[in-house]
Design goal:
heterodimer; A: alpha/beta; Rossmann fold; six-stranded mixed sheet; four-stranded antiparallel sheet; 9 helices; B: alpha/beta; Transcription Regulator spoIIAA; 2 domains; 12 helices; elongated
C-alpha cells in the first residue's frame, strides 16, 4: 500500500498491576484516515488511547507517532510529539476559569510567535470552523454539552496537529448533536486532511465516519478484528464482532 | 532570514500593471505562517504594495494559519488604499476559504472581557451578594439544627462509620501537628516571660503564666486554627467537589438529606475531637514550659508542676474545653457552608476552601472575644 503510516503500534501490552488488559496489539493508522477503536466496556479502549498519547507507559511494545517513539522518549521528545497531536477528552476538559476564546488561544500563544491580533483572528476562525461563532467570551459552564465538545475540538486543533484523538466524542450527546459532530469531523478530515483516531462504541457514528476500525475484546485480552466496519459487520466470523455490530446481547 | 529554515514559499514580482503580485507555492500552514507574516509585513512596510494580487496557483495546501497570512495581506492592501485579488485558488483552497468564511474576516477581532460596570452597580451587586450570603448562612444553620433534631430523635440516622472516620481525620491525624505547635508555643511563652520575671526573682510564675494562658486562651485558639486549616478546608473542598460532580444532587434525589448525610457526621466529629485536641494542646504546652523551667530557670519539675496545678482551677480547663467545642461547631458550619455554596468549576472549589479557612479563623477570634466579655461580666 502506498499510504504512509502515521501511527504504528507493535506488540503492545498493557497491565494494571498483574492484570493484563491487552497484549499483542498491532496496527497501523494511515495518514488522513479516520480510525476507530471499538470494543465493549472494560476492554481497554481508553487505556489504549492513553498509551498512544503518552499518558500511560505500557508494559511492553512500541508506539511510533509520525516516526517518533512515544514510549522511550525523554521529556523533550515527548513534547515534540505532543505538538503533533491534539486530544478531545470525553468531558471536553475545558479550563473552567477561562473563556472559550482563552481556552483556544492558550496553545497558540504558548507555541507560536503570532501577535495578539493574529491570535484573536485565528481563534475566531477556529471557533467558526466548529460553528461556535460569537461564543468566544462565554465561560465553559455557560455552554451546552455539544458546544463544550466543539469548543474542546477547537482547542484540540488549535495548532492544526497532524493527528486528533477523540475519547468517546458522542458520549452524552443527543442523536442530532452527535450526527452534527460526526459531520464536522468528516468535514475537518476532508478539508484539513487531519488523521483522526476515535475511541467509541456508537454504532451509527462508526458507520458514518470510520475508514477503518480495530476491535478489542476483554475476554481475548487483545485485538479481535481489523478492517472496514461494513465489511466486518457483514462478513466477520467472530461471534463477538457479529454480536457487537448487530446489537445482540 | 534564518538560513537553517527552508526558504519561505513565495516570490514577489513588482511593477506589473496590477501593482504587486505575490506567488505562493507549496504548503501554507501552521509551520510557516508566522514567519511568512513577519517577513511580508516587514517587506511591505518598506515597499507599499498598491494593488495586491496573490497568486495561489501553485499552493498545494492551505489551513487556517495559511488563511491568516491572506487576511494580513488583505489588511495591508486595504490600508494602502489598494485592491486585494486572489488568483487561481485550487478547488480545495476555495473550499477551505469558504469554510473559514474568508470574505467576512475583515474586522479586527477582540475577545477582551466586557467592560466593568460602574462603581455604584458593583457596590449594589456586592451588597446584594453579601445579603444573600447571610441569608443562606442563616438558613444553613436552620437546616443543620433541623437535621440534628432528627438525629436526636432517631439516632440510627447517624452515619456511624463516617463519623468515626472524620473523628480520626480531624482528631487523631491532627494530633501530631497540634502537639508540636503547642509544645513550641509553651516553650516560647516560657522563654519570653522568663526574661521579664527573672528580674524580679519570680521564675516560678512562668509556670502559672504558661498554664493559665494556654488553658484558657491560646490552647483552644491555636487548636481551632489548626483544625480550621486542616479539616475546615477539607470539608469545603470535599462537599464543593461533590457539588460540581452532581453527587450532592444524587444524594437528594435518592431521598437522603444532604445536610444529614454530609454535615452531621463532620459536626459531631469536630465537636468531640476539637476539645480533646485542646486538652492535648494544654498538656504539650505545659510540657514545653516545663522544659524551659527545668533547663533554663533552675526550677525542679515537681515545683513547676505543683505551681501549674495550684494556679489552674477545673473551671479554667472546662472553660477552654467548652470554647473549643463551640469552635469545632463553627469550623464545621463554615467549612460545609462554603462547600455547599460552590457552583461552576474547579476554581470555585479553590475559592470555597480559602474562604472556609479565612471565615473560620475570623469567627474563632470573634467568638473568643465574645467568651471573654461573657466571662468578664459573669465570672
Amino acid at each position: 500500500m502506498g499510504r504512509k503510516a502515521i501511527i504504528e503500534v507493535k506488540d503492545l501490552e498493557v497491565r494494571y498491576g498483574d492484570a493484563v488488559i491487552f497484549r499483542d496489539v498491532n496496527f497501523k493508522v494511515y495518514e488522513g484516515e479516520i480510525f476507530v477503536v471499538l470494543g465493549g466496556s472494560g476492554c481497554g479502549k481508553s487505556t489504549l488511547l492513553k498509551s498512544l498519547i503518552g499518558l500511560l507507559s505500557p508494559h511492553a511494545g512500541r508506539i511510533l507517532v509520525d516516526g517518533d517513539e512515544v514510549i522511550a522518549e525523554d521529556e523533550d521528545g515527548l513534547k515534540k510529539i505532543l505538538t503533533k497531536i491534539g486530544v478531545l477528552y470525553q468531558s471536553a476538559a475545558l479550563f473552567g476559569s477561562m473563556t472559550v476564546a482563552q481556552n483556544v488561544a492558550l496553545p497558540i500563544e504558548e507555541y507560536t510567535s503570532l501577535k495578539k491580533d493574529a491570535v484573536d483572528m485565528l481563534v475566531k476562525m477556529k471557533l467558526g470552523l466548529v460553528n461556535l461563532d460569537g461564543y468566544g467570551n462565554h465561560l465553559p459552564s455557560e455552554l451546552s454539552g455539544g458546544m463544550k465538545k466543539r469548543a474542546g475540538l477547537a482547542r484540540a486543533m488549535a495548532l492544526n496537529p497532524k493527528i486528533l484523538f477523540f475519547d468517546e466524542p458522542s458520549a452524552g450527546l443527543d442523536p442530532i448533536t452527535s450526527a452534527e459532530l460526526d459531520n464536522l469531523l468528516l468535514h475537518l478530515n476532508r478539508t484539513l486532511g487531519t488523521t483522526m483516531v476515535i475511541v467509541t462504541h456508537e454504532l451509527d457514528s462508526i458507520f458514518t465516519v470510520a475508514s477503518r476500525i480495530i476491535m478489542l475484546d476483554k475476554k481475548a485480552k487483545g485485538m479481535i478484528a481489523e478492517g472496514n466496519p461494513r465489511y466486518l459487520r457483514d462478513n466477520s466470523q467472530n461471534a463477538f464482532v457479529k454480536q457487537f455490530f448487530n446489537r445482540r446481547a | 532570514m534564518n538560513t537553517a529554515n527552508p526558504p519561505l514559499p513565495y516570490e514577489i514580482s513588482e511593477n506589473t500593471e496590477d501593482g504587486t503580485t505575490i506567488r505562493f507555492h507549496g504548503r501554507m500552514d501552521s509551520s510557516n505562517a508566522g514567519s511568512l507574516m513577519e517577513d511580508l509585513s516587514r517587506y511591505f512596510s518598506q515597499n507599499p504594495p498598491g494593488n495586491l494580487t496573490v497568486d495561489m496557483e501553485n499552493v498545494t495546501y492551505l489551513d487556517d494559519f495559511g488563511a491568516l497570512v491572506l487576511v494580513e495581506l488583505r489588511k495591508i492592501a486595504v490600508k494602502g488604499n489598494g485592491d486585494f485579488n486572489l488568483r487561481h485558488p485550487g478547488e480545495k483552497i476555495r473550499e477551505m476559504l469558504m469554510f473559514l468564511r474568508f470574505d467576512s474576516l475583515f474586522k479586527k477581532v477582540s475577545f477582551e472581557k466586557k467592560r466593568r460596570q460602574g462603581v455604584f452597580v458593583r457596590l449594589g451587586e456586592k451588597t446584594y451578594d453579601i445579603l444573600n450570603d447571610i441569608k443562606y448562612a442563616v438558613s444553613f444553620i436552620g437546616a443543620i439544627t433541623l437535621s440534628l433534631g432528627q438525629h436526636l430523635v432517631h439516632p440510627k440516622l447517624l452515619r456511624r462509620e463516617d463519623t468515626l472516620d472524620y473523628m480520626q481525620k480531624t482528631g487523631v491525624d491532627g494530633l501530631p501537628i497540634v502537639a508540636l505547635i503547642s509544645f513550641l508555643m509553651g516553650l516560647i511563652m516560657a522563654f519570653m516571660s522568663s526574661v521579664q520575671l527573672e528580674q524580679f526573682g519570680a521564675n516560678i510564675y512562668v509556670a502559672s503564666l504558661v498554664g493559665l494562658s494556654m488553658t484558657r486562651e491560646l490552647g483552644p485558639i491555636m487548636t481551632a486554627i489548626i483544625v480550621a486549616g486542616r479539616s475546615g478546608s477539607a470539608f469545603a473542598a470535599e462537599i464543593g467537589t461533590m457539588k460540581i460532580s452532581e453527587e450532592v444532587d444524587a444524594l437528594f434525589t435518592m431521598g437522603f438529606d444532604p445536610v444529614g448525610f454530609l454535615v452531621i457526621p463532620k459536626l459531631i466529629a469536630a465537636i468531640v475531637m476539637v476539645p480533646i485536641l485542646t486538652l492535648f494542646s494544654d498538656i504539650f504546652a505545659i510540657a514545653g514550659g516545663l522544659l524551659v523551667g527545668v533547663f533554663m530557670l533552675d526550677l525542679t519539675a515537681g515545683a513547676y508542676v505543683a505551681q501549674t496545678v495550684n494556679t489552674l482551677t477545673l473551671f479554667d480547663v472546662f472553660w477552654g474545653v467548652l470554647k473549643s467545642g463551640i469552635f469545632g461547631l463553627v469550623i464545621t458550619w463554615v467549612g460545609c457552608l462554603r462547600g455547599f455554596q460552590v457552583s461552576g468549576g474547579a476554581a470555585s472549589v479553590g475559592q470555597a476552601t480559602t474562604s472556609a479557612v479565612v471565615s473560620s479563623i475570623f469567627l474563632i477570634i470573634l467568638f473568643d472575644s465574645i467568651f471573654s466579655v461573657i466571662l468578664r461580666y459573669t465570672g
